[in-house]
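From the shared-data thread, chain only:
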Amino acid sequence: MFKAIFTWWNGSTLGTSFTLWKRGARLIGRDEQGNRYFEEKESSFPNGGYRRWVVYHGLAEASRVPADWHGWLHHTFDEPPTVLPLTRRAWEKDHLPNMTGTPLAYHPSGSLYLPDGPNDVAKDYEPWSPQGE
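Structure, as tokens:
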């Protein structure tokens, strides 16, 4: 209960749950990461559109939303991926969230953040000196 009140970055807060209940939002589907997607039952927009939400499973990070659900959330697609999934091409890779700032982030060979330290930096590195020597 305490976690649901104060940790907005970790799933749904009580305020989000109350808003979903108050607007009569219905569960549309889930993605492969466990995120849940909702749409309100009655339109609250003047043009007749419906408000849509995502409730993250775990860390609330927008890059965790796959392309098909992103398109549905932003009204690019009328039908959710549960009804009309996007066709995948053979060359497309699986969706990955942004890993920056995590232990799984990409670090090139000269990075100081590598567990063993930078490697092969001394071979091609020449320090700058103001005299040009």
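Strands lie at 26-30, 36-39, 52-55.
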